[in-house]
Structure formats: C-alpha cells, structure tokens
Amino acid sequence: MQYKEYKNGIKLSRLGMGAMRLPVLNQDEAQIDYNQAEVLIDQCMKGGVNYYDTAFIYHEGKSEEFLGRALAKYPRDTFYVADKFNFQADPDYRAQFQEQRKRLQMERIDFYLLHGIQDHFADDITGSGCIEYFDQMKHEGKIRYLGFSFHGSADVLSRILDMYPWDF
C-alpha cells in the first residue's frame, strides 16, 4: 500500500474504503450484509488501507454502526475514520454528533466534515453554531481534524474558507 503524509506524522493510505455502498441483503439499503461487508473491511485492513469514510445517512444510518463494529477488532491507532455532519438530514448538530459516536462506538472521529455544503443552505449551516460546537469537540479530543465538503459557487466557498482555520 502507498501512503501519503497528512500532518502530525499521520500517514494515510492512498486508497480509502468508503462505506456508502456496502453489500446489502434483499436490495434493502438498511440491511447491510454484515458478513460480506466485514470481509471487505478485513481485506482492506490486511492490504494496508487505514482510511474509512462513512456518514450519518449512509445505508439509512446503518453504515456507521456497521463500520464501528467491523473496526472494533483492530487497534484504534491502526485506522482513521472520516464521518460527516449532514445538516439536511438533521440540523441538530449536537444530537447528530453524539449519535454518530455512539453508532461508531468511538470516542474520537479522526476527520469530521460539514457535509456537502451548497449555496442554498450555506448560511443556515454556518450560522447554526455547529462550527463553534465542532471546534469545542476538537479541543476536547472528540474530533481530530475538522473540514468540509462543498458543492457550490466560488463566492460562497471563499466566505466559508475565511470563517474558520479548517484542517482540510
């Protein structure tokens, strides 16, 4: 596996494992085929993948739960987890973040993103208090790095970049 230096000595695998489209039973998004999906995670870990991505809404909320369970058998310092605050699914950032940590069964989320910010709700999400809250969680060690993903205009992107010293 090839690795890329991130910062603070962290080396991330160039290949990451996304948990948005895991194997399912009976074509039901909420019914992850845990046996098949766990084989994928085990193969990734064996192959040196150390970056795993999930989100609050993936597999109708079951992705985080699955990923936490599948990674629980590995030492916590052998992998990194990215998760996302989905404002459109539930604007209650405090409740969503606590639920995510509960589903993952992890005290810390390594890479936490404000997910898929778009122009039509950028002001709502950035004005909600979530950035300040997630910064507090970062200072408490519950988030290691804070960032965002974006699907909007250059003007809005520029404003968001200036709001906070984003890690990524």
| SSE pattern | EEEHEHEHEHHEH
Arithmetic mean of pLDDT: 97
Spatial separation of the terminal alpha carbons: 23 Å
Largest sheet: 5 strands, parallel
Q: Which structural class best describes the helix and strand composition?
A: alpha/beta
The tally of strands reads: 7
Rough outline = globular
**Beta fraction:** 15-25%
- What is the radius of gyration computed over CA atoms, rounded to a whole number of angstroms? 16 Å
Q: What is the overall number of helices?
A: 6
Q: Bin the helical content.
A: 25-40%
Strand order of the largest sheet: 3-4-5-6-7
Q: Which segments are poorly predicted (pLDDT under 50) over 5 or more consecutive residues?
A: none
Can you give a write-up of this model?
The chain is of the alpha/beta class and 168 residues long. Helix content is 38%, strand content 20%. The protein is built from 6 helices and 7 strands; from the N terminus they run E-E-E-H-E-H-E-H-E-H-H-E-H. The chain has helices at 34-47, 62-71, 93-104, 119-126, 130-139, 154-163; strands spanning 3-5, 11-13, 17-18, 51-53, 80-85, 109-117, 143-150. The strands form 2 sheets. A 5-stranded parallel β-sheet has the order 3-4-5-6-7. It is globular, with a radius of gyration of 16 Å. The two termini are 23 Å apart.
Keyphrases for this structure?
168 residues, alpha/beta, five-stranded parallel sheet, two-stranded antiparallel ribbon, 7 strands, 38% helix, 20% strand
